[in-house]
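Quick one:
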Amino acid sequence: MSSRYEKSEALLARAEQVIPLGAQTFSKSRTQFPHGISPYFADRAKGSRTWDADGNEYLDLINALCSVTLGHCDPHVSAAVEKQLHRGTIFSLSSELEIQVAEKIVELVPCAEKVRFGKNGSDATSGAIRIARAFTGRERVAVCGYHGWQDWYIGSTARHKGVPQAVRELTHSWAYNDAASLEKLFRDHPAEFAAVILEPMNVTAPKPGFLEEVQALCRKHGALLVFDETITGFRYSMGGAQELFGITPDLATFGKGLANGYPVSAVAGRADVMKMMEEVFFSFTFGGETLSLAAAKATMAKLQREPVIDTMRTRGERLLRDTQAVIDKHGLGDVFSLAGHPTWSFLQFKDARGHTMWEIKTLFMQEMLRRGVLTYGTHNMSYAHSDADLDKLAGAYDETFALIRRGLDSGIRPMLEAEVLEPLFRVR
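Output:
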């Protein structure tokens, strides 16, 4: 047991006695963090920093899986939540906050005419698919990207255990930036697709005309176009990727940064499609929980009031420049590449020089965590990230890449203090 993570590892052992995998989220478990060289439990977070159960401080580049946009414990959001806490967290009747937050989303998001709330991204994407099926009278769905844990989507991935075959057969994957692969699905199953759902951008930017072609195909074949903006919403642009790229879908889903980490999500879209929410069953006790709605209202107000998105983009652009310079300095262009949007970018790992990407990633995480950077390769920017934080990251990358270069020459495995990570499943 590492003394640096002694308490964290003890908590993990305790958690595994009562919690499958010892965590509520795969991305926070030992499937993503190598055992023996990683923290597993956080004690607190503030701004751009997180402290683990052992008191180690980290520059946080994960930001609660991209759900934190303003920074941890943003004072404006915390004040709004505290004020609402004294008024009540959930009532026997609806709250005016539901109207206020829905009105703000309608104001900001191009496709939004009506809005319904959920608690996480999977609620929203599943709600969108249900009303798309109800509206069109069709059952098949074409998916591109990651859309949550529910049967209709996860059945199309390698993690499909427990999903009925009949459900799996209704979901079809197609390739991003390859509209021909979507067109083939329409040809193979004419008049059977209720919806096409995709992340409008994740790792790769859309090729010129790609999103327009997808929209045209949906209209031609009578399927609804759904943008999963769980991450891109309120991050890429005020009105999400749809505003950034100028393509208005029929429906869109939001979550993550909508409330700076508080659990709320939203389905938004055309009024005639959203009217199906009156017919299908999309209802749960905590759909109007007020603390998260107060957080969402305060978050959107700050996004409008301050240059949050511009700042995240500008600092993200600097981060990408700095990181590419360090990759070039150490001659690691065959090992690492950069992708994504400046506010949500990726350090991609490749098999190289006789080593697997998983060996390289394990050494990378070992050394970055040791240097006080909480990451597994993504750069999930927040408004709280400062230039000093970017200096720290560049320095950590410089030292870590130097070690990786040495390991590639002499052997990585002898440098590892943990078992090599194993792939879970690729979501993007």
